[in-house]
Amino acid sequence: MNIDKSSVVPIYYQLKMVIQERIKSGQYAVGMCLPSEREFCEEYGISRMTVRQAISDLVKEGLLYRERGKGTYVASPKIEQGLTKLTSFTEDMLNRNVKPGVRLVELKQIKADEHLEKILQVEPGTLLHELSRVRLADDEPMAIERVYVPVHFYPALSAEQVAHGSLYEVLRKEAHLTIHEAVQSIEATLAGPHEAELLNIKPKSAVMLMKRITQNANGEIFEYAESIYRGDRYIFKTKLYANTP
Ligand code: GLP
Fold first, then answer.
1. CA distance 103 to 198
2. Distance 60 CA to ligand 1 centre (A)
3. How many CB atoms are located within 10 Å of the residue 34 CB?
């Protein structure tokens, strides 16, 4: 792919396409340091400003990342997540040959407050497991999850069971729950300082807050989860069908 200076397509945009193409073809592999701004200027006879604009756009889009004082590198591709299947984080990772991981932040029991009572449809003061974990993909932090499960569904839930593996697997195997359906919403938000630290991103980075209310086969709500996903590493994708006449 070349740059056509007489084209109506802005030069910075053409350079973006060139770099994207090279990433796609593997010429610029994941983790590789990009040529310097000067090298791009010389290769295409274009200005530094133009090169900078192309590169900053690709950084914003998550295809590249900068390391202060070192250079610009090719980022791992974003994780594409479907929105129609009720799957666990572990299943999502295994389905794409990525190693799932967990960093346990805390497992404790709390009494449901008014907000959680309403969501989980439980009596005032019902005991809940509150489980907070950082979820990893190939050892890289991807999401922070805070999950509430009414204790009566599985009183024996322990830190050892969820510190390394899947909560859904424990609930299926040990609590004999049939994980049946969920209502899920996604909203945009910004990472707070604590979340940014856990996710290894800059404070105020764009993240996605996902809320899930999950039912078993008897229609009982056994889970309310709030997950914060890295905006630079995730794409949520869904298929749409038009009304057929
Ligand atoms: C997803 C959901 C959570 C759910 C979790 C279970 O990430 N957002 O609601 O608790 O999966 O994942 P795992 O079984 O891997 O612990």
1. 9
2. 28
3. 19
* Regions of the chain where pLDDT drops below 50: none
Indicate the pTM of the whole model: 0.82
135 alpha carbon – ligand 1 mean position (Å): 9
Any atom of ligand 1 within 6 Å of the Cβ of 168? yes
**Nearest protein CA to atom 13 of ligand 1, as residue:** 166
Q: What is the pLDDT of residues 193-213, one digit of tens each?
A: 999 999 999 999 999 999 999
Per the CB < 8 A criterion, the answer to whether 113 and 77 are in contact is no
Q: What type of residue is 53? A: Q
In order of their start, the domains of the chain are 11-74 (1.10.10.10), 79-237 (3.40.1410.10)
Q: Could you read off the pLDDT of 8-24 as tens digits, one per residue? A: 999 999 999 999 999 99
Encoded amino acid at 127, one letter: L
Q: Do you know the residue count of the chain?
A: 245
Residue 67 in tokens: 């390391």
Burial class (CB in 10 A: 0-12, 13-18, 19+), 223: buried
Residue of minimum CA distance from atom 11 in ligand 1 = 88
- Alpha helix ranges (H) inside the chain: 11-25, 37-44, 48-60, 89-95, 114-120, 159-162, 167-173, 193-199
By most ligand atoms within 8 Å of CB, the mutation choice from 168, 181, 216 for ligand 1 is 168
- Residue appearing with tokens 């572990």: 90
Ligand 1 pocket test target in 94, 134, 144, 147 with most atoms within 8 Å of CB: 147
> Residue whose CA is closest, atom 3 of ligand 1?
225
